């Protein structure tokens, strides 16, 4: 069933996987708030057909700023009605390994990937409770399961997102709110493709059971399903979209 222009909020929605999630939800019938801290990416999104048509709404926002989140979510619901779906996609990482991870980088990575997801989910869920309905999808990574190397803060933050999601599913279920997590594998975003050599990309492809990298649209389609009535009996789940890089 389509969203029938119900409101969905997608963080990190102006680029990469987030952009594909926005497109999938718009196709499913939602009006989508594109939440992003990157003003340049948001400015680019304003030139797209879905924004010009009013089906998507760019919102510049730092998800780690609780007061700003509360203000913007309040404004969105006042102007466009209750939030039917939230997708916590925003994330960031920095170079580093366990032995050289700095406290400053740890705090920054955890703040965006975990604390920001908590703030957005709590603010939106408090509004969803009044409607006794809603869907929340949190985006995690195979890094949380030791599949890829990288900074420990990112792996820890994404593992925290998965634990938080399950707790949310338990505590929000009685209010008609479903919470699921999409565990993302190596995905052919413009950011990845611009930074890896052909040999590195081939190594990444060989790490999957399908012999291919994921596409941002693969994530978008899964998220759209989890926000739809077709998944009305699905909650508390980790769903791997990784070509078999990680299997629950």
TrEMBL record:
CDD domains: SDR_c
InterPro entries in UniProt: KR_dom, NAD(P)-bd_dom_sf, SDR_fam
Domain Ketoreductase span(s) in chain numbering: 6-186
Matches recorded under Gene3D superfamilies: NAD(P)-binding Rossmann-like Domain
Pfam families in alphabetical order: adh_short_C2
Gene Ontology molecular functions: oxidoreductase activity, acting on the CH-OH group of donors, NAD or NADP as acceptor
Keywords assigned by UniProt, alphabetized: Oxidoreductase
Recorded family membership: Belongs to the short-chain dehydrogenases/reductases (SDR) family.
Listed name of the protein: 3-oxoacyl-ACP reductase
Gene designation: fabG_4
